[in-house]
Amino acid sequence: MQAPTLYRQLAEHYLSAIRHGTLATGDRMPSVRKLMQLHEVSLSTALQMCRYLEAEGWLEARPRSGYFVRQPRRIRLAPALEPKPATVIDPAQFVGIHERVSSIIAQGQRPVKINLARATGAPDLYPHKQLRQLASSLLRQYPLLLTKAISPGGNRDLKSALAKRALDVGISTSADEVIVTNGCIEALNLALRAVAHAGDVIAVESPTFYGLLQVLESLGMKALEIPTSPSTGISLEALELAMQTYDNIKAVVVVPHLQNPLGSIMPDSHKQRLVTLCEAKNIPLIEDDSYSALANGDKIPTAAKHWDQTGNVIYCASLHKILAPGLRLGWMLGGRWQARISMFKYAQTRYNEELSQLIAATFLQSSSYDRHLRKLRTTLTQQREKMAEGIATYFPEGTRLTMPDGGVSVWVEMPPQVSSRAVFDAALRQDILVSPGLLYSNSNRFDHFLRLNCGTHYSHELEEALGVLGRIVLDLARIKKVASA
Amino acid sequence: MQAPTLYRQLAEHYLSAIRHGTLATGDRMPSVRKLMQLHEVSLSTALQMCRYLEAEGWLEARPRSGYFVRQPRRIRLAPALEPKPATVIDPAQFVGIHERVSSIIAQGQRPVKINLARATGAPDLYPHKQLRQLASSLLRQYPLLLTKAISPGGNRDLKSALAKRALDVGISTSADEVIVTNGCIEALNLALRAVAHAGDVIAVESPTFYGLLQVLESLGMKALEIPTSPSTGISLEALELAMQTYDNIKAVVVVPHLQNPLGSIMPDSHKQRLVTLCEAKNIPLIEDDSYSALANGDKIPTAAKHWDQTGNVIYCASLHKILAPGLRLGWMLGGRWQARISMFKYAQTRYNEELSQLIAATFLQSSSYDRHLRKLRTTLTQQREKMAEGIATYFPEGTRLTMPDGGVSVWVEMPPQVSSRAVFDAALRQDILVSPGLLYSNSNRFDHFLRLNCGTHYSHELEEALGVLGRIVLDLARIKKVASA
Ligand SMILES: Cc1ncc(COP(=O)(O)O)c(C=O)c1O
Ligand SMILES: Cc1ncc(COP(=O)(O)O)c(C=O)c1O
Description:
Two copies of one chain form a homodimer.
Chain A: H1 6-19, H2 32-39, H3 43-55, E1 59-62, E2 66-69, E3 78-79, H4 97-107, E4 114-115, H5 128-141, H6 156-166, E5 178-182, H7 183-195, E6 201-206, H8 210-218, E7 222-229, E8 233-234, H9 236-245, E9 249-254, H10 268-281, E10 285-288, E11 313-318, E12 329-333, H11 338-349, H12 354-364, H13 368-394, E13 400-401, E14 409-413, H14 420-429, E15 432-433, E16 435-436, E17 449-453, H15 460-484
Parallel strand pairs in A: 3-13, 4-15, 6-7, 6-9, 9-10, 10-11
Antiparallel strand pairs in A: 1-2, 5-12, 7-8, 11-12, 13-14, 14-17, 16-17
The complex binds pyridoxal-5'-phosphate (2 copies).
């Protein structure tokens, strides 16, 4: 990992001033000469910095007057709406999300030019070179790794490394308690199977990621969708009301940090109240913490599990989005259901392959992991902002947008008459894959939303794709208006 | 893979004559001079061959008379018994195999000196060097393999290679239909979830491998144990009777080839009748074909799926025991439930990691795979025979033994008063791990059985371990006799 060049460091300094409002839109930047004095840099560094920020859309050059802070276009987009009042609760619905998902997934499985449907970053955002080197050296170090029986209970080194990393999110646990899984998705399956049965009702955020709805349907469980705020996450009032209304809720599943698709982050006070509420009602809480390491800032948000005193919280996490999308590594802490979950894991898929576990263990134990995360967060922040600019440029008036404090996606609300399925189909014909909002609920409430990936380097091609998408949305908005006029 | 040396080729020739009875016990071998003439080999080669067969226990040297064919000790052990008449059928039992298995597995998870509990061969029986080289070269060829999103639907090359290999067991299918899983165990989970629900009854072989009993229990399904012959597999009469008696059997699961733990191989006519029977009763048949490539002979047995005309057979298999115990690769063909199973697989664990799939794909496409299997079968045959010799030498009278036509285990019936749990405990105190018969049924019927692994090179240490085991069994047999006298 090379250190950022001088001009990039300087740019970060001014960007941060702009983001925090210290430098407002229309403000004049210090002159190049002034910059040289202030920061003791060369002319060329000062100029490079200004040109860079201009290219990134944060400054504009006015002839003979110097550089001025510019309003990013995305400011013109309205933020995502808060959900309807807490009293509105969907009844448990079970409309066959499988079929929807299957048909969308099947179509999305051919290679496309621009893939905006992913929930991971591009391959080169992850430490591919280091992981590859680790793989080769581990294969040399353990020549029988691929043909010897996998060590029972999961790889010890990985479990220790994960237990140590859990401290960063406020969880103190031990290697023995870590259960390594095939991604967070297996962890969610195991957690749900441990606490509930077919026919039971499970409270989930709304919107929530289709993977969870699919797991519930495949297990014969019913999703009860609880209104969720794009800024503070699941509505605790709505959840409490739901618990009073339905007596067969057998678990609550939440993604407290960088919720998929909203990107919301629950305030600590909410997480604490949620843990207490579930505890009081004797309803297990399943925490899906797949994304927290991608939250802005140097301190990873504290897990809800941190406030768990009685083992009522099952903690599920993943390395898939933060370390290596090519490895199927997730992990969990089973709380009161630890023994049951361990056994289910063994009965379901046995233990994970050793090589992947060792690669991850070695990398997690090193400071390279911290460096990787810092760099990844910075890159993603830039890319989210550029995507937002692009969306603001090309999407029609009335579009709303979340700007999450981290993560790999933004959540776009299109004009209400635009169907995300129609956008999906039209975009695919132009070799662009998007993730339509209809996947994120058993209801039709999010049919005019799109989740767009920000994990790819913002290129000319990507900008063009946003142009194409914008036109598709615009056309659909007009046709619908005419049809209904 | 190097070609066998001349003396080993010659030894194989005579071994085969002995096995087929062309050379009977007590027969005199051709003299060394005669061997030289007959096979046009040197004196040293002829001598090496005789000494090798002597060391392996097949010949004995009599002073001044030459070499004579010797009766292997194991001939003195009675073969495994046929099951009780078909009329005896256990009611569906659900005694909590999980607990038994958990406690046994937990104890077996610390490293031991001699591990006879495995269902795989030793690491060096598999092509570790070639697989390692493949891994390194694939990582060079695809530098982003570990950090890019896994290709949806499973790796195409592996699916093609498996579809092609399926021809060897008489199944004609296409790459599209192959579902890659985390070992055969995940395939069994998916198959059962696709065709049955909690509370349903599933007919299984008795004894059967504990993994299956565990899967059933974890899914809330009930095992109906059908008597199974050590030579011809599941009793079709008993199964048919069960189908008449119970109207809630929702699936039949069988391991037609090298059944675990019996080692039985169903005759083709039985497999065909089984397929027809399940079809007629409209009960899905789940075929677990994990071991067929380890069956003696150059022709892999034909899968029951071969006779399936209507998609009523779900075929599950694995590379775990035949190619690489370090890879968690299984696969399946979903028959009529293909779409449902694909979706369940996606919802349960997503797709398998790409690197492992590519390693396996590349190796399966080469003739190295065939050479590996041939060598593995030969090695295992020798090792099974030596284990049988050892058991015959050290175990008490009244011991019975299966001698399966392939595979990695033998199934030992001890005197009826000996508890396999007691043997397990005593052996573990001496750092030897065995697989106790009580794991292989929800009943107590196999409590005086052991499954012993033959996948490890027969060493002096291993022989000593068999000596220790023999004494343990002998002691337990005596104590029990005294106690009951
Ligand atoms: C919130 C959330 N949980 C779990 C998963 C699945 O994670 P994994 O790939 O680790 O199985 C995803 C993937 O999209 C996700 O967004
Ligand atoms: C008959 C049988 N089926 C399935 C399995 C599990 O296979 P895998 O390791 O491929 O998951 C085993 C392993 O012992 C087995 O003996």
